[in-house]
Design a protein that fits this description.
Pfam families: Methyltransf_12. The chain has 193 residues and is α/β, with parallel strands linked by helices. It has helices spanning 9-12, 16-30, 49-55, 68-76, 91-96, 119-128, 153-162, and strands at residues 39-43, 60-65, 82-86, 104-110, 130-141, 167-178, 181-191. It is built from seven helices and seven strands, in the order H-H-E-H-E-H-E-H-E-H-E-H-E-E. Strand 2 (60-65), helix 4 and strand 3 (82-86) form a beta-alpha-beta unit. The longest helix is centred in the N-terminal third of the chain and has 15 residues, at 16-30. The termini are far apart.
């Protein structure tokens, strides 16, 4: 794997597995939550495949990713109700960035939390951005072994409980065939307040 997500930006939107993941994640979201006119945050948005789908129903979408080239690809799509932030998530960013106020009705994190340096701390930061009654939705690969990418359901439960997002459900809404293997995706849907 490359050292930088920037290296994947140009071909990301033509990757069939990436497209399928975004489509299935979006469908599993709208099957469970009403998102019309909501204020949404797409954390780790990449090139915005999920952001662009959210923008069809949400009132506004703020998309954040540390990869400048991924954000460039998203910005080239010129989606009217999508604003972008090129940055890692930090307390300083939360405290000082105008796009992160007011708080959000929905925060999504699609196949990203397994790649952050500190999963519990990241979810703790994201929770600060949620208004009362908001939803946090996470999709990640189901970890097949101790060394695999993704999470076990117990790992997700521990983190959500640890940050005070106690009202949540876990499911396996879809899987993808990649390199002759079926990879399952776990979805966590947490309601705050």
């Amino acid at each position: 794997m490359s050292e930088s997500w920037d290296d994947y930006a140009n071909g990301w939107d033509s990757n069939a597995s990436v497209i399928a993941y975004a489509e299935k994640a979006y469908q599993s979201l709208i099957d469970r939550i009403e998102i019309e006119d909501c204020r949404a945050l797409d954390f780790g948005c990449g090139t915005g495949l999920l952001s662009s789908k959210l923008a069809e129903q949400a009132g506004t979408v703020v998309s954040i990713d540390p990869s400048e080239k991924m954000i460039d690809v998203l910005n080239e799509k010129c989606i009217e109700n999508v604003s972008t932030i090129t940055s890692e998530l930090s307390q300083d960013l939360i405290d000082g960035h105008e796009l992160l106020t007011p708080k959000f009705d929905l925060i999504v994190a699609s196949s990203v939390l397994a790649f952050v340096p500190d999963y519990p701390d990241t979810v703790r930061l994201l929770k600060q951005l949620m208004r009362e009654g908001a939803y946090f939705v996470q999709w990640d690969w189901v970890k097949g072994s101790d060394e695999g990418i993704g999470f076990t359901e117990d790992e997700i439960k521990s983190v959500l409980n640890g940050v005070g997002l106690d009202d949540f459900t876990l499911s396996i809404p879809f899987s993808l065939e990649i390199d002759d293997s079926e990879l399952k995706v776990v979805m966590a849907v947490a309601n705050y307040g």
